[in-house]
Structure formats: structure tokens, C-alpha cells
Design a protein that fits this description.
This protein has 214 residues and is α/β, with parallel strands linked by helices. It is built from six helices and six strands. The protein has helices spanning 13-21, 51-60, 65-83, 91-106, 149-156, 199-206, and strands at residues 86-89, 118-122, 160-165, 177-178, 182-183, 212-213. α5 links the parallel β2 (118-122) and β3 (160-165). 40% of the residues are buried.
């Protein structure tokens, strides 16, 4: 669980429980009267709802892709400075694609099962026009000229890519720190690692920075 003595709380305790288990647990110090029958609990923020639910909501018109993307970007900009999970950001591209997704839906065109859903991908995966170094200093300046097959399939499914997440050099460690992007912290306890090699992915999802991560 979250160490409540952590000097910098990235997430509230309820958010961490929701992100980890999919259900918001009631903290021990919660006022029980607030949970009495007849009192509606606060809805789960979109950033912590499953990707499948976000996709259904976009197709149903309950929320737009642009709204989802903006909410995820807002969380990244507000919280990622403390955990360093999303190390390559393409927010302008993401907002443009989200607008295209909404326009397509207005024409009754559905791109696929992830239509308009905001995601991230690991930095090692090629994504056209983005840094792709696998956290190796000698590869700094390497920019992908094509999409990896897995990335292309996500795009073909309608996903909106917000950016790329951190990793250890060569994707080969049980922690996530490197000389190119620095260290990614565990949002439950900033003094600890989220593991590896997909530590940036794990932290991004725990913090509600993306619906999915590759």
C-alpha cells in the first residue's frame, strides 16, 4: 500500500487503491456518515477507468476523445515531474489526432476498438518522428522514421498516442533509471523503483497518465 508518510504524495490514497485494484477502497479515517445510504459517491475519474470503458464512452458520445486526451495530458503535466514516467511527449500530435477521431465519429466512421483512447508506448518502440534510443546514450539523436508493427496496429485500432515511457538501458534491468532520461519513481513510495524493464509504463498507468501502455 501507499506509505502515507511519503514526503511527496503523488496520488491520494483512494486514487492509488483505485489504480491498483480497480476499486476505490474507503480509507480508515473516512467519515462513515459520508458513506451512508442515499449519498452518491464521487464517480471514478476517466483517467482511472479501464480502456474498454473509455472506448465505449467515446463511441457512445458520453465523452469526446479530445476531452479524454486533455484530462490525461493535464495529469501528466501536473504529476509527472515527481515520477518521471512519460519521457517523450507529443501532446500537439495527440490533440490533433483526437480532434480527427471526434470528427470521424461525427461522420459515423469508427477506426477500431480503441477509437480515440489515449495511450502511451515504451520509448524503445519506434513511433514516427520521436526519439527512439532504448535509453542508450550512443543512440541519442536517433529518431524513428517508421512505426513499429505493434505501434501501427494500435494506431490502426484507433488509439491516440500521448508519448513514450521510460525504461532501463537496452530494456534490460529490474529497475528504471538511465543516463538519457533519468530515474522513474514508484508513485506509492518515491524512494523506491517501479521495477523494470517497463517501469515507466507501470508508473504511467498507476498515475492515470494513459489508458494503456505498450
Amino acid at each position: 500500500g501507499l506509505d502515507r508518510r511519503c514526503p511527496v504524495a503523488v496520488l491520494t490514497w483512494v486514487e492509488v487503491r483505485r489504480a491498483s485494484f480497480g476499486v476505490a477502497k474507503v480509507p480508515r479515517r473516512t467519515n462513515r456518515r459520508a458513506m451512508a445510504p442515499g449519498r452518491a459517491s464521487a464517480p471514478t475519474p476517466w483517467c482511472f477507468r479501464p480502456a474498454t470503458e473509455q472506448a465505449r464512452a467515446v463511441l457512445a458520445g458520453s465523452v469526446s476523445s479530445q476531452d479524454l486526451v486533455r484530462q490525461h495530458i493535464e495529469r501528466i503535466e501536473r504529476l509527472d515531474g515527481q515520477v518521471n514516467a512519460v519521457v517523450v511527449r507529443i501532446f500537439d500530435r495527440a490533440l490533433a489526432r483526437a480532434a480527427e477521431a471526434d470528427a470521424a465519429l461525427a461522420r459515423r466512421e469508427i477506426w477500431g476498438p480503441l477509437h480515440g483512447v489515449p495511450i502511451t508506448v515504451k520509448e524503445a518502440f519506434m513511433l514516427t518522428g520521436t526519439a527512439t534510443t532504448s535509453a542508450i546514450p550512443q543512440l541519442q539523436g536517433c529518431v524513428a522514421e517508421a512505426n513499429a508493427l505493434a505501434v501501427q496496429r494500435l494506431l490502426d485500432a484507433g488509439a491516440v498516442i500521448l508519448g513514450k515511457t521510460n525504461l532501463p538501458p537496452y530494456c534490460a534491468d529490474i529497475q528504471t533509471a538511465n543516463p538519457v532520461y533519468g530515474r522513474t519513481c514508484n508513485p506509492h513510495d518515491l524512494s523506491r523503483t517501479p521495477g523494470g524493464s517497463s517501469g515507466g509504463s507501470a508508473t504511467a498507468l498507476a498515475c492515470g497518465f494513459a489508458a494503456l501502455d505498450l
